[in-house]
Amino acid sequence: MTRKKTTNIVVHHTVTPQDHDKLGTIARIRSAHKKNGLAYDGNPAYHFIIGHNWTVATRDIKTIGYHAGNWEINKVSVAVALVGNFNNDHLTQYQEDELGRILRHWMKEFNIARKNILLHKEIKATACPGANITQGLIDMVVSSKENDMITALKARIVEFTAQVKRLHIEVKKLTGEVVAGKGREMDKDTQIIVLANQVEATREEVKRKEEVIVAKEKELLELRGSLDDAEQTAEENDDRIREEAADEATEELKQNILGNFWDWLTGKR
Length: 269
Ligand SMILES: [Zn+2]
Fold this sequence. Notes:
- This protein has helices at 22-35, 71-74, 93-109, 135-142, 145-181, 188-265, and strands at residues 8-13, 48-50, 55-57, 77-82, 117-119.
- It is of the alpha/beta class.
- It folds into two domains: 8-143, Peptidoglycan recognition protein-like (Lysozyme-like, 3-Layer(aba) Sandwich), CATH 3.40.80.10; 146-264.
- Residues 12, 120, 126, 128 line the site of zinc ion.
């Protein structure tokens, strides 16, 4: 069943042992979802499952999953499940990073607003995804190190650009002051000496300011380079999730076909 639109993300937990491996966990969730009718096409209801150190796409991202216990939400949402029971467990560093990457990826891919990332318990009377998974935690994982770095770099570039602008204005002002010195009343010879001295002093000041401008502009260039690198890394992470999802979905499909064949052989179908 294909989704017509995607406006929400729902976060779940699996209530299976946090440290279990990929295949064992998928088998367990698939059989539980088959038993209670959530796996209408044989696949687990969640689109992605994040284990303690592994991630797997368990449902074609374009399809509807019966995960939220609410049809209005199911038909417009993608679901990610964290392996563990987060009434007691806490996310591993891997789960935290991976959840952040997947959420950011979906927010971008489907143009989903932060406020539309929901915890399962916000839709239905359930403990899922556990007391330790809060909207505050979601806030934290959604803002990545790369994103924070990009924001910080952009702020520094704005600050540096303003500094360079200010320095240019100061240089202009200094040049103007020399001219203003001309209006003072003193005899001609003194005026010439004073002016010459002022010109010399100003020239040196201008030179110093211009050196600062050159240094700032060099730093600015380096900052822009770092910003490009950070944006590149963020982009690559996004591509990686997309590719992994495609690979895992293919693998999952193969396993599903084998599973169905096995069920048919053993007379369960
Ligand atoms: Zn749930």
